[in-house]
Amino acid sequence: MAIAHSSLLSSLQGGLIVSCQAPPDSPLHDPEIMAAMAEAAVNRGAVGIRVDSPAHVRAIRQRLPEIPLIGLWKRVYTDSDVYITPQRHHAEAIAEAGADIIALDATERPRPQGETLAEIVQWVQDTWALPIMADIDSLKAAKVAQQLGIEIIGTTLYGYTAATAGQSPPAWELLQALVRDCPGFMICEGGISSPEMAQQAIALGANAVVVGTAITGVDVLVQRYHQAIVGR
């Protein structure tokens, strides 16, 4: 059951949200493994979990019924670069699985099959009354998201879109601009690779921090070490 709107953001304030995800070809890409990983994170102080796919949301919700879950569903399309909860039926599946917050790509990129961000946001608000996290890449995208009534803004896609090509997260300058020009609940996500960087994000005004790869990215981290050792 979703956590009450009134207390959700306060429960995340000033805290660490751990992204529990694994590549689809990884043996870790299993609902029960992700649920165990999420429980380990919560046991050590995480205030929330960000998780991909309905099956993984459902498994974590069953194991951690009281912990705020930011749910998304990554889907790849040939006619669109949007892959984080790109369509309405993906948002519906995440909501039905038990997420408290639905994360959506909120960049200016066109969505698959002609759907629009505004339509999906309106449907989520009308049907589920759940808060939405806008995964953005720019100040302009954040402002559009807020105009649509999205409560939570995340720097998730900074450096991962054509518009921000060549930029490397964490998005310190973008975060500062968001805090200055977009009053609301700001989450710094992307490129946070140390406790000191997470601390810096909060100091710059983020309401919460999402850390993924640096904590749960076993596949990526092992590959980096291996490549460094063998020199390729």
UniProtKB/TrEMBL annotation:
Pathway membership: Amino-sugar metabolism; N-acetylneuraminate degradation; D-fructose 6-phosphate from N-acetylneuraminate: step 3/5
Domain of life assignment: Bacteria
Encoding gene (name): nanE
Name of the protein: Putative N-acetylmannosamine-6-phosphate 2-epimerase
Described function: Converts N-acetylmannosamine-6-phosphate (ManNAc-6-P) to N-acetylglucosamine-6-phosphate (GlcNAc-6-P).
Gene3D superfamilies named among the record's database cross-references: Aldolase class I (3.20.20.70)
Reaction equation(s) it catalyzes: an N-acyl-D-glucosamine 6-phosphate = an N-acyl-D-mannosamine 6-phosphate
EC code(s) of this entry: 5.1.3.9
Family: Belongs to the NanE family.
Alphabetical list of InterPro entries matching this protein: Aldolase_TIM, NanE, RibuloseP-bd_barrel
CDD domains with a match to the protein in the record: NanE
SUPFAM superfamilies linked to this entry: Ribulose-phoshate binding barrel
Organism of derivation: Phormidium yuhuli AB48
